[in-house]
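Hi F.,

I've been meaning to write this up properly since the lab meeting, where we talked about keeping a consistent format for the predictions we share between groups. The idea is simple: the sequence comes first, exactly as it goes in, then the structure tokens exactly as they come out, then a line or two of notes. No screenshots and no reformatting. I'm using this chain as the first example so we have something concrete to point to.
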Amino acid sequence: MIIGLNNNYLEVISLSQIRSKFYIETHNIYDMKLNLLLSKDKSHYKQELLNKIRKDIDINKNYNGIFFNIQNEQIIIRNIENIKSKKQNHIIGLIKCQINQYMPIDLQNYSIKYKTIKDENKQELIQGILVPKNIINLCLDLSQELDINNKHLNIDFDILERLIKLKLINGLHEDKISYIIKNRKDDLIINATYNKQVIESHIRIKNDRTKAYLENLCESNSVYYYGVKDKFIEEIHMSTLRIKSKLNIHNNGNDKEITTKYISALGMII
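Output, unedited:
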């Protein structure tokens, strides 16, 4: 089971694998703001959501796991200069210091992880990822209520990077930056990739300024998209992300357009 957490809606997908082929069993979208599920009245809204999910899926099916994916403004992603320390507490301390210089937040409310990356100038950086603990707790609560013990929380750009490292995406440059856009209902995630890593990732809302930004980006860069196909993305004339046939969804033969829509879901279970 896949649960996509977005600001204004949640997607719940049941996905199966028969031999080497993937099939979408169910796909439901629930109009519920994420902030309601994190509010003081969260118990009421959580129960409302769970009732809808139980109504729409086969709760008696033996699910191998529940996979959550999210990337919104509450997820903080920052690149900072590498201090060349191998001690985790030193690196976490540096990330906290850098974040607090620009954002007055209580870091005790965040889970912090990091990895080392190299940008297009071969400079080694620490990429810090901060996830609010209330989002982690929400995922734990939902998995417990749905009685699925094997649970995973994924950030969207991490899923994309995993597919790149597994060599399941075609056409990316290793010696220059390529851009991969995840198109969603209300906004986009813009990922800059270099040497099999996502070196930058940020969110932009859909408006004329973003459209102009993307059109300019496409003029001199390799830019691809995946996710929702809508009027906004079609007007930019952006290329669809090219993926290996191993990832294809087979509900309607071998439909690559359908597969493009479910790349995040596939990337969590592959």
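Notes:
The mean pLDDT is 92.
Residues 42-56 form the longest helix (15 residues).

If this format works for you, I'll send the rest the same way.

G.
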